[in-house]
Design a protein that fits this description.
about 400 residues, 5-stranded parallel sheet, 7-stranded parallel sheet, 14 helices, 14 strands, about 15% strand
Amino acid sequence: MGESILESEEHLLMMLPFPEPTELIAGIKIKHPQLKITYHRVSYGVVPWVAERGVPDETYATVTVLFTLSALPPDPTLTPHLELIQFISAGTDHTSTSPFYTSTQVPLCTSSGVPAPQIAEWVMMTALAFSHDMKTLVKWQEDRTWGGGGDAISVKRKKGVRGMVGQRMGILGIYIDFVIQVARLAQALGMSVIVHTANPRPTPDSKRDTGYIVPHTGDADGSIPLEWHSGTSKPSLHKFLSRDIDFLLISVPLTQATEHLLSSEEFAILGRRRNAFVSNISRGKIVDQKALIEALKMGMGKGKDKEEEEEEGGLRGAALDVTDPEPLDEGSELWELENVMLTPHVAWEDDRYLERAFEVLEGNLRMLEMGVEEGAAAGEVGGEGFLNEVRRERGY
């Protein structure tokens, strides 16, 4: 890049919906003393991008790096020196209609990988809770009932316990970020893991994750999956779903091409042999929710008779941290289905989220300061340019 943009213009603007994190900002200033930092608190969270008009034009005019969730300048012409937009969110689909996304080449980077440990824990927590019928166990405790019948002999849950050992997890979508930590935890529980990605990943290098990874987590070299499938066609998807999957994790980024990617036909395949459990931690619109509800209703009560399962199909259950719409309609049947575990888009929450997001920001400031090409050559974070950089042509 030649001369460091940070040395010549030195202005980071943070537009975030919470009080100024002074200690974290102080840490950035220590590592980048030449950098001017402006903090502007906004009053909204994860919503479709918002044109923030509360920042003076003269401030926008000198900004080189923007750190934000949903807030963006009203027009790209206000930020002629902007070199990088770092999002505090793990995705950017909520900003995909903004002119910064559609009409500029300003690098966009996410905080993908930051919520990986907590999301992976949510995935396995809900899977284990469903497998062990925790709803019934909690109800017994609340009712002060020992096994529903008052004595040890009568202890009986509504459904049998299907342990994780020997089950097959299918991961549909990306194999980075929280997904590689899910794979690691699943393997530790004795599950086998297979993966389906949009593009082929036939070589060891292509299977590596070069994004941000929380230390001591994940599968950076992509060695855990026993099978790698790929493709964007329905036949390729159906071939993957037919691989006797017990547990399907949906990790598909939301784009126009992936909306309602999973519907009645796909759920029928998943329910035909294994009565799969589905976990959606991606976006609600990836799934045809009406079709999901029907598949879950069909799967109610399954798990006792193998011949009945294979004949009638249906999904044995689902864990959903995302729905369509959000918040979920009060009248949705999802609220009352016994085989559904529903949470209000909170799987990402962790006390250390902001700290880790600042680590991603600092890594990209370092790349910008060195020059992206020089930083990548020197083995800095990411190794291929900015850390967690969005590829606009694919939508994530």
